[in-house]
Amino acid sequence: MKKVAIIVGSVRPNRRSIQVAEWLRKQLVKSNRVQFDIVDLQRVNLPMMDEPHLPFTGLYTHAKTRQWSRLVQSYDGFIFVFPQYNWGYPAVLKNAIDYLAKEWQGKPVSLVTFGGHGGSQAQIAMRLVITGLKMKLLVVNPQIDLMPTDSLARADYRLHTHDDEVALLRTEFENVLK
């Protein structure tokens, strides 16, 4: 069975990213051909880039980096779940991505963003990064309107308005990862 990591790209206290990732996974696990796992960058806990060699060399000095590399290599595709921060993406997500290079290449990826305007600017910025890494951007990339002031129930309601879009994403991963 193919595996896709849903990478939680925020580590803020009281973050909405976990709620979004769990909702997403519940929709995606209906697949019998692809396994979807949540990978929380808070648990991965990478310091700001501290490797002495360029990531493209694959020469990793630190055990944490080698462990991160093995984890990323174990997945066939990715979904980055992240909020929009000041019209961009969270630094913790960029840091985690920048630790590696070849591990990302050629793998399919979807961007699931959220914020007051759905995270559209964060998606634009991240598209440049994944293009540079030679990842394959999928067609389905949900942008979800969520406000920090939304209650859990209101956020849950807003998330479920995207259930059909996530069903399309599940099908897209199933087709791409045959």
Please outline the helices and strands.
Layout: E1 2-8, H1 17-28, E2 34-40, H2 41-44, H3 63-73, E3 77-83, H4 91-98, E4 108-115, H5 120-132, E5 136-137, E6 143-145, H6 152-160, H7 163-176
Parallel strand pairs: 1-2, 1-3, 3-4, 4-5, 4-6
What is the 3D form? globular
Indicate the structural class: alpha/beta
The H/E string reads EHEHHEHEHEEHH
β-strand amount: 15-25%
End-to-end C-alpha gap: 9 Å
How much helicity do the residues have? 25-40%
The total count of helices amounts to 7
Contiguous low-pLDDT stretches (5 residues minimum) are: none
Main beta sheet strand tally, sense and closure: 6 strands, parallel
Q: What is the total tally of β strands?
A: 6
CA-atom Rg in angstroms: 16 Å
What's the average pLDDT?
A: 95
Structure description:
- The chain has 178 residues and is α/β, with parallel strands linked by helices.
- The chain contains seven helices and six strands, in the order βαβααβαβαββαα.
- The chain has helices spanning 17-28, 41-44, 63-73, 91-98, 120-132, 152-160, 163-176; strands at 2-8, 34-40, 77-83, 108-115, 136-137, 143-145.
- Strands 1, 2, 3, 4, 5 and 6 form a six-stranded parallel beta sheet that branches.
- It is globular and about 45 Å long.
Provide a compact summary of the structure.
With 178 residues, the protein is an alpha/beta fold. The protein has helices spanning 17-28, 41-44, 63-73, 91-98, 120-132, 152-160, 163-176; strands at 2-8, 34-40, 77-83, 108-115, 136-137, 143-145. Helix content is 40%, strand content 19%.
